[in-house]
Design goal:
By secondary structure, the protein is mostly helical. The radius of gyration is 20 Å and the shape is elongated.
């Protein structure tokens, strides 16, 4: 049974890659028609500058999720945890139970929630959402294009260990938007990931021991000096 399920996952990934390869080829053809050929178009390894790659020189990531998970666990640089962030007030932490929006509007809330996502191996959802927020603040066209490319490589490409889960409709929107990158290229994708975190991870966070322990620590009276 396990072998059969593993084979199904491999076949599903192959079909997904075929779809993305076809989409990538369409993107490149459209850019050629528009006279907007990417600088690296001569590189036979890549279909387009947004790294929708399918070349044989790249090793497709293993379908074994253990390998992907071990890669993810090593990627700890630049992340913060709840203890390292500004400590929330008791009132702030209590408000997180009201709505997911309260969590995301609080710097301490985002940090604590991100730490929780890390334990569920889904921290990339928060990382992607934050990257999109930073992108929307950028006004320099050159910087925008570079950030769009980096976000695509980090979170959209099927070759990335940090790939976020998006449906085919949103991926089609992204592929179209990549023709003319802007600070809002990933708006649909960002909203979909926000909804995913709200519906899926947020309820578990509020009911987690991490949140319970945080509340206990905030409710305890400070030690007497």
């Amino acid at each position: 049974m396990v072998t059969h399920m593993g084979s199904e996952r491999v076949e599903m990934r192959k079909r997904q890659m075929q779809v993305h390869q076809e989409a990538a080829a369409s993107v490149l053809q459209a850019r050629h028609r528009m006279g907007n050929t990417p600088t690296n178009a001569s590189n036979a390894c890549c279909f387009c500058w947004c790294c929708c790659c399918s070349c044989s020189c790249l090793t497709v990531r293993s379908e074994d999720e253990t390998i992907q998970r071990s890669t993810f666990e090593r990627r700890t640089e630049g992340t913060t945890n709840c203890e390292e962030s500004p400590k929330p007030t008791l009132e702030d932490a209590r408000s997180w139970t009201i709505s997911f929006e309260r969590v995301m509007k609080s710097a301490a809330g985002r940090s604590c929630f991100r730490q929780f996502l890390r334990t569920e191996f889904s921290e990339e959802n928060m990382m992607f959402w934050l990257a999109c927020e930073e992108l929307k603040k950028e006004t320099n066209k050159t910087v925008v294009e570079e950030k769009v490319r980096q976000i695509y490589e980090d979170f959209i490409s099927i070759l990335s260990p940090k790939e976020v889960s998006l449906d085919s409709r949103v991926r089609d929107v992204i592929n179209r938007n990549m023709l003319e990158p802007t600070s809002h290229t990933f708006d649909d994708a960002q909203q979909q990931i926000y909804t995913l975190m709200q519906r899926d991870s947020y309820p578990r966070f509020i009911n987690s021991t991490a949140y319970t322990d945080l509340m206990k620590s905030l409710e305890e009276p400070p030690p007497e000096s």
